[in-house]
Amino acid sequence: MAKSRVAPLKSVTIPRLELQAAVEAVRLKCQLESELDMAVDSQYFWTDSMATLGFINSNETKFHMFVANRVAEIPRCSSVTQWHHVLGSVNPADLSSRGCTLSALKKSNWFTDPAFLHKLDLSAHSTNKADYCEFIQNGVEVKKPKQVLSTQSATNDTLDEIIKKFRSWTRLVRAITNAKAMLQNKSFKRPATTAEGLCQAESHIIKLDQKQAFDKEISQLEKKETLRKNSKIRKLVPYLDENNMLCMSSRTTSPLSYGERNPIILSKSQLTKLLVTHYHQITHHQGHNSAITALRQAGYWITGVSTLAKGIVHCCVRCRINRAKPEGQQMGLLPKKRTEPSTPFTHVGIDTFGNFFCQGQKNRAKEIGCDLYMPLHPSYSY
């Protein structure tokens, strides 16, 4: 029994057509089994396509959908070991696909069978399975492995990166206060803000900034060691207070507050930039000296604060508007009608002024004043 199909009009590759022919052979085998009444001891499938044998002996998940569906259908009705390779010169199926004349058909093996089928050892014509798989290893139908790139977002942001997200010192402190309260309560509901919570948040932020800027100095003070000579804050004689915050020693015995006598030491950073901007706004934009004085009274000592405060005042929009110098206005050119001599009443101008509200006999009326002027001729006297 023989069966052949016409190739579709849509362009299909030769390996796909040969695989479709193998599917037709499997379907033909199932049809013969349902029609024959005799038992079949052994079954053999022959194909002259090395690509088809490679598809059958490989995993179906490696191929595209067209090939994968047909490769999955073939093992349902046949075994992989039943498939063998035959040379195209002795394959009678080529006569139906390639076509031939009537005289050539009579001399061919279409009505008989290939000569090698009469041999007892049919497995000798089979090819090694490794040769099939190697034949299609780099084929077009094989799926290329997809490259998946995984990105891991950094969750341990530095303090400066967190502070850049805030535009004021007040918002930063309130955000840290709410975050600490949510972690303690284990709830996303925003709690009520208290003065104690704000003070604790300020201390927490300052400790993080000091640890980032003066980590070596803090570790030396904890070990009760002398600071190195190249330390920037060695002349300030720093020490750690009861809250483990870095403070500056003072020799004054005046009745000042603890923060004014022993201010907290900070370095120039994003945090101190927000802090100087905050006290610059509190002093109502009076200048960098007023902001520095307010910082000292609040108990903060920032290294290089003068340069930082001047930069903040220089970039402050409100300060630039208030301290801007008035621009000198240049008067426009006089029109020719006012400079060229002419006879009287040739060019006349009128200015209006008002409004004036005058009381009439019955009600108030709005009055407008007019002023008439004209250029004078040098030959006339008025």
In short:
By secondary structure, the chain is mainly alpha-helical. It has helices at 14-35, 50-56, 65-77, 94-98, 102-107, 129-135, 159-163, 169-185, 195-213, 215-222, 258-261, 270-282, 288-298, 305-315, 317-322, 336-339, and strands at 45-47, 83-85, 238-240, 246-248, 264-266, 300-302, 349-359, 364-373.
Overall helicity: 40-55%
- Secondary-structure element string: HEHHEHHHHHHHEEHEHHEHHHEE
| Quantity of strands, as a count | 8
Distance between the termini: 134 Å
Rg, nearest Å: 49 Å
Q: Which secondary-structure class do the elements indicate? A: mainly alpha
How can the largest sheet be summarized?
A: 2 strands, parallel
Any idea what the shape is?
elongated
Q: What is the percentage of strand-forming residues?
A: 5-15%
In which order are the strands of the major sheet placed? Answer: 1-2
Number of helices: 16
Q: What is the domain total for the residues?
A: 3
Mean pLDDT: 82
Oligomer: single chain
* Low-confidence parts: none
Protein model, in words:
This protein is mainly α. The protein folds into three domains: 122 residues, no CATH class; 164 residues, no CATH class; 41 residues, no CATH class. It contains 16 helices and eight strands. It has a two-stranded parallel sheet. Strand 3 and strand 4 form a beta hairpin. Helix 1 packs parallel to helix 3 and helix 8 packs across helix 9. The longest helix has 22 residues. The chain is elongated and about 130 Å long. The N and C termini lie far apart (134 Å).
